[in-house]
Amino acid sequence: MTDCLFCKIAAGEIPSDKVYEDDDVFAFKDIHPKAPVHVLIIPKQHVATLTDAKDPALLGMLMDRVRKIADEVLNLAKGYRVIINVRSGGGQEVFHLHAHILGGKVLPF
Ligand code: AMP
Ligand code: ZN
Per-residue pLDDT tens for 35-90? Predict the structure, then answer.
């Protein structure tokens, strides 16, 4: 999608602090981290929000990459939190589906 911040980041048109990339996803550090480790994982395919993600294969792929990046790239051996904010009521500000990985400290509920 032409006018989407995260599509532009995945395409390299806007700089980011990349931590992982493959054919399906792009992962980068959040610009305003809320934990010592705060990484965003986006599908390269533009999907605005979880509500629009009707393809179970896409969602399965995304969660597989969350697991892979958190456990194998970020090495968050003590654990981590995964958050998907859904639409404005859920705190979503960027309308390109993304999962937050938060870790590096014990997270309060
Ligand atoms: P959400 O509220 O779930 O839509 O999360 C959007 C996240 O994107 C926020 O945590 C922002 O800090 C983060 N963010 C916004 N712009 C950028 C950027 N250019 N690079 C990295 N993270 C960003
Ligand atoms: Zn997009």
Answer: 999 999 999 999 999 999 999 999 999 999 999 999 999 999 999 999 999 999 99
Q: What is the pTM of this model?
A: 0.97
Residue 108 lies in a domain: no
Distance CA 73, CA 104 (A): 13
Q: Which amino acid is at 24?
A: D
Which among 38, 96, 98, 100 is annotated as catalytic?
A: 98
- Distance of CA 10 from the midpoint of ligand 2 (Å): 8
CATH number for the domain spanning 34: value is: 3.30.428.10
CA atoms within 13 Å, Cβ hemisphere of 56 = 0
